[in-house]
């Protein structure tokens, strides 16, 4: 029973790390898949297989080499010199995304709960601090609570969409004619998400002693990600093309379901922002600690303080530069992950 519990915790943590705020709002699914028509169903299936394969592979690699942080994995993939540079670039990007997640947490308090933006920020910072003090076990527990909520929401939108007159759009809607965009998008999505997710997947795979538990947790988590991608695509396709005009497409699917469901949806959005936030800070902390002699508590506090100040001024300019750069860099990282072979699970 203990093994099964660990497998589920690993799967939920993997799912919670990938299924971030962009996924929960529907923007990522719309941008990388649904906008391209019925062929997105095929690209999602391929994406799901890749998540099963490569997510498991990251954790197996980490387990085999006893990785302290994602830098150890990047050194394995790219060599000592390039691995360090790629890890440093990832550190900058993770910190940028951390600042945006903090700002997102404050915005939800202000826009939807009508509570001060600053109070929302301080609440998110304090909650993140106390969770991160508990280490990887706390991250496992948080995701074990959040991911079932996401799965519940996924079931709700599926049941709602089945009744829609356009429920068949996910299979029959016309396909985007630009095949380069169609086939590049899922690989950018996989590379971007997995290269960031390694901040948590690497220490997770390294700290779990039983390799079979790591292996099956990765497989179950990858399948779960695929199911949620397909469910989101199914629901959003039924509302195309009008759904593309909204910043939070998923929000439009639940507007007629009552305040209780809308409140649950807001909680899920906040929870997904929070899981992304703590995952990024945890990975950053391990990376900085590997390069310096600072205590992990001092590192966490420093990241949260700097993130707080950056969240006051916005981060759109830096992100508009880093996201495209990191998206294409992630293709090189993805290729190295695909071609490097791990040891067998025994």
Automatic annotation (TrEMBL):
UniProt KW Membrane keyword: yes
Keywords: Membrane, Transmembrane, Transmembrane helix
Residue stretches spanning the membrane: 7-26, 32-54, 85-109, 115-133, 140-162, 182-201, 213-236, 260-282, 294-315, 321-338
Protein name (Swiss-Prot/TrEMBL): Membrane protein YkvI
């Amino acid at each position: 029973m203990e093994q099964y519990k660990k497998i589920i915790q690993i799967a939920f943590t993997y799912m919670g790390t990938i299924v971030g705020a962009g996924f929960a709002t529907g923007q990522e699914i719309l941008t990388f898949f649904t906008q391209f028509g019925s062929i997105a169903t095929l690209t999602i299936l391929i994406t799901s297989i890749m998540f099963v394969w490569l997510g498991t592979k990251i954790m197996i690699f980490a387990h085999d080499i006893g990785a302290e942080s994602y830098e150890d994995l990047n050194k394995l993939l790219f060599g000592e010199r390039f691995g360090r540079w790629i890890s440093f670039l990832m550190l900058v990007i993770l910190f940028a995304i951390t600042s945006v997640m903090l700002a997102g947490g404050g915005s939800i308090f202000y826009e939807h709960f009508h509570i001060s933006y600053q109070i929302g920020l301080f609440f998110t910072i304090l909650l993140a601090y106390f969770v991160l003090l508990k280490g990887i076990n706390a991250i496992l527990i948080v995701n074990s609570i959040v991911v079932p909520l996401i799965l519940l929401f996924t079931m709700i939108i599926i049941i709602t969409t089945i009744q829609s007159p356009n429920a068949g759009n996910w299979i029959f809607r016309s396909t985007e004619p630009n095949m380069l965009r169609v086939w590049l998008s899922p690989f950018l999505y996989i590379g971007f998400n997995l290269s960031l997710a390694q901040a948590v997947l690497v220490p997770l795979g390294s700290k779990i002693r039983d390799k079979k538990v790591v292996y099956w947790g990765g497989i179950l988590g990858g399948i779960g990600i695929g199911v949620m991608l397909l469910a989101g695509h199914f629901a959003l396709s039924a509302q195309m093309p009008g759904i593309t005009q909204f910043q939070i497409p998923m929000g439009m699917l639940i507007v007629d379901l009552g305040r209780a469901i809308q409140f649950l949806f807001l909680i899920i959005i906040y929870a997904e922002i929070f899981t992304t936030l703590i995952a990024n800070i945890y990975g950053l902390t391990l990376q900085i600690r590997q390069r310096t002699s600072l205590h992990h508590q001092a590192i966490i506090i420093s990241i949260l303080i700097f993130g707080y100040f950056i969240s006051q001024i916005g981060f759109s300019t830096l992100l508009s530069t880093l996201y495209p750069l990191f998206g294409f860099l992630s293709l090189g990282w993805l290729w190295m992950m695909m071609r490097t072979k791990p040891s067998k699970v025994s």
